[in-house]
Amino acid sequence: MCGIVGYVGRRSAVDVVIDGLRRLEYRGYDSAGVALVADGEAGGLEVDKRAGKLANLEAALADHPLPESFCGIGHTRWATHGVPSDRNAHPHLSADGRIALIHNGIIENFAQLRAELESDGIEFASDTDTEVAAHLLGREYVMEGNLTEAMTRVCSRLEGAFTLLAVAADDPDTVVGARRNSPLVVGLGRDEYFLASDVAAFIAYTTDAIELGQDQIVTIDRSGVSVRGFDGSPSEGKPFSVDWDITAAEKGGYETFMAKELREQPQAVADTLRGRIDESGQIVLDEVRMSDQDFRDVDKVFIIACGTSYHAGLVTKYAIEHWTRIPCEVELASEFRYRDPVLDRSTLVVAISQSGETMDTLMAVRHAKDQKARVLSISNTVGSTIPRESDAVLYTRAGIEVAVASTKAFLTQLAACYLVGLHLAQVRGIKYADEVSAVLDELVAAPGKIAQVIEGLEPVRQMARDCALNGGSGGGRVLFIGRHVGYPVALEGALKLKELAYLHAEGFAAGELKHGPISLVEEGTPVIAIVPSPRGRSLLHDKIISNIQEVKARGARVIAVCEEGDRITSAHADFVIETPASPTLLAPLLTAVPLQEFAIEFATALGRDIDQPRNLAKSVTVE
Ligand code: AGP
Which domain holds residue 44? Predict the structure, then answer.
């Protein structure tokens, strides 16, 4: 939700800031802007900001280059308060034009502050919540004469979630940042320093970074970095080193980041499993700071997450309950704390978040901790807020995921969740050792099978294009149905298509269709069925075949994702996507992949922006 970059050093600030914004554009792309402090005695602020994608700002800067500067800030926006427009784009200026400020988050008491400032005669130039912070900072700066002091005073007046960066016209050597609830990291170069929402912004220049804590103010100038608390007391961040390089943040010859990330899934899943199963078949979760006894004490599991991560949680419920016999509930993080869930010390709350910054999930984690539950987070982002505030963490190792629509994060979340479920079963002695090892062997074999699915995607691409271009038939919608773990996969397939193609797509529990949604089916409506394995005379398989017949009888075009060699399904479906044989609980690692490709190709045929779908942002840091 909004990407922010700040720079002080020896390079052209505009180049560094624009480069950083390009890598952060996945966080929001409604508008973009920069503010530079002109070099030299006179200083002065140079600001340019444009509605739309970063390319609009780049084009404007190419037409009207800004003067040389070595100190600046930049912002790419996901709009909350005020429509996407030039005037609402960040940076925002103080009334005297001497301070430029950018913001990620929501200032919840902005209305009251705005009324106060307006009654003092300040005229607002935008509809944003952010502008109040720019005016307050301008006022404090006049009184304090020091940007860090002024920022400290402003933060004491703000409520809500905010990362702020600011520069002053008469100080071409300083950027000041503040962080509450929204991410901010510091990059440490040689005689140059960076501030950004995410390390991707500065990874081309340095892999040394500092993670800032809650309620901290950071000042960078050419001589270094200093950190203090909102109360003004000296403080420090936590140093870390980024273990991936810039090539991970490039498209590497693919048309889109999403196509690249989809194809990285075998490696990402293998990396997530690596080193976590020892030679004797025991699961070793090093980063998890919970003892075996803690896991034995668990009598209930709650999984909280949003979007795709929530779908990973839904799959995990089936696995945890089957393997451990511990009751497991899955809840949308945005709903969790508002319904007063029953939690105590023996409840394990598993928070799943790729970014580790999703505000809904973070707030649910805080609620769970307040109720004394233990929180284990599963995240892809080392040092992000949710893992930091959890009792324990298991990192997925998907590497950076740039496309807004999640692919490899989902599969690695599944892999990590399976490990947690099997670990629980192991330490509680619920399953025989050979039963756990049999599942682990299958898990370790999954990356090879995912690669096989990816190799066979060409027919899916053609079929998806065909569906997209014949979108006029079938009511202009696509339905997804599944049972058991196929149900969350159906939800995920529908989410991918909605996100990318802007089309009505919906996932249903296949058995539920006849209770209402079947009325959506008309002649030609594509219905994608996730079919479980037919092996062992599966009851589930029989049931979904009946559901396929029900929709076919009403004119649906049935596309079935089924196990290779499943002749019964091929006899009933109009199009079949085969996946390698897999144990039922692990099948989502395979069946989700063709649905990701289906969405990419369908949306491409409609001319959509695959990596940056409209209205979305990758990291949702507002509630
Ligand atoms: C999925 O394609 C989306 N990017 C979105 O649903 C995402 O999964 C959700 O916002 C949760 O994000 P998180 O995993 O970073 O918490």
Answer: 3-244
- Tell me, in angstroms, the distance from the centre of ligand 1 to residue 325's CA: 28
pLDDT reported for residue 471: 63
Cβ neighbours of residue 328 under 8 Å, at least 6 residues apart? Answer: 300, 301, 302, 303, 316, 317, 320, 321
Q: Which residues pair with 101 in a beta bridge?
A: 92, 166
- C-alpha count within 13 angstroms, C-beta hemisphere, residue 66: 28
- 307 pocket-lining for ligand 1 (C-beta < 6 Å): yes
For residue 405, give the ligand 1 atom closest to its CA. Answer: 2
User: Is 417 in the active site?
Assistant: no
Report whether residue 324 contacts ligand 1, using a CB cutoff of 6 Å: no
- Taking a C-beta distance cutoff of 8 angstroms, is the pair 147, 219 a contact? yes
Among all chains, which residue has been given the structure tokens 């301008």? Answer: 138
At residue 574, what are phi and psi to the nearest 5 degrees?
A: -85, -25
Report how far ligand 1's centroid is from the alpha carbon of 44 (Å): 40
pLDDT in tens, 512-569: 999 999 999 999 999 999 999 998 767 889 999 999 999 999 999 999 999 999 999 9
User: Which of 244, 274, 298 is where one domain is finished?
Assistant: 244
Tell me the pLDDT band of 149, cut-offs 50, 70 and 90.
very high
Does 592 sit in the ligand 1 pocket, CB within 6 Å?
no
Q: Tell me the C-alpha to C-alpha distance, in Å, between residue 520 and each of 494, 507, 554.
A: 15, 12, 10
Pocket test of ligand 1: the residue of 330, 352, 395, 406 to mutate, having most ligand atoms within 8 Å of its CB, is 406
Upper half-sphere CA count for residue 145 (Cβ side, 13 Å)? 0
> Is residue 443 located within the same domain as residue 475?
no
Rounded Cα gap, residues 176 and 222, in angstroms: 12
Which residue lies with its CA nearest to atom 4 of ligand 1? 405
Name the pLDDT band for 224 (thresholds 50, 70, 90).
very high
Q: Which is the closest atom of ligand 1 to the Cα of 308?
A: 8
**CATH code of the domain in which 542 resides:** 3.40.50.10490
Q: Assess if residue 318 is contained within a domain.
A: yes
Percent of the chain clearing pLDDT 90 (strictly above): 83
Is the CB of 489 inside a 6 Å radius of any atom of ligand 1?
no
Query: Is 2 annotated in the active site?
Result: yes
Which atom belonging to ligand 1 lies closest to the Cα atom of 620? 10
Whole-number Å distance, alpha carbon 155 to ligand 1 midpoint, is: 29
For the sheet with 392-395, list strands across it.
Answer: 328-332, 300-305, 347-353, 374-379, 392-395
Q: Is 125 exposed, middle or buried (0-12, 13-18, 19+ CB in 10 A)?
A: middle
* Separation of CA 494 and ligand 1 centre (Å): 14
